[in-house]
Specification:
Blueprint: H1 2-80, H2 82-93, H3 108-120
Amino acid sequence: MDQTYGDFRARREATVWQRLNRILRVLLVLTVWLVIVSLFVPPYKRLMQSRAEVDDLQAHVNEQRSLLARQTREVNLLKTDVTYLETIARDRLDLMKEGETIFRLEPARAVKSRAGDSARR
């Protein structure tokens, strides 16, 4: 009976060591995986920040292109269209033709900023 108990005990101790070896292997694999992930996360974050910055710059470039197109159109109109030139000149100099009635509409932003200025005083 001592021999069977000894075999059982040897098998039990062997399984304990096998379990500990498995746990150690799993922990080793997890450690290696965490090291690899920690090496790749900071460059990935920098890449995402760079992409966001590129997107912002591209939006700014598109905005500037549309502004350039509007201003180019206005320059062409001022060079070629006499009635447009006359309208702009009269508007900026606050002049009007005889019998003409001028209605000025202010944008909503100007009204809000004036209301805010008077509230601050």
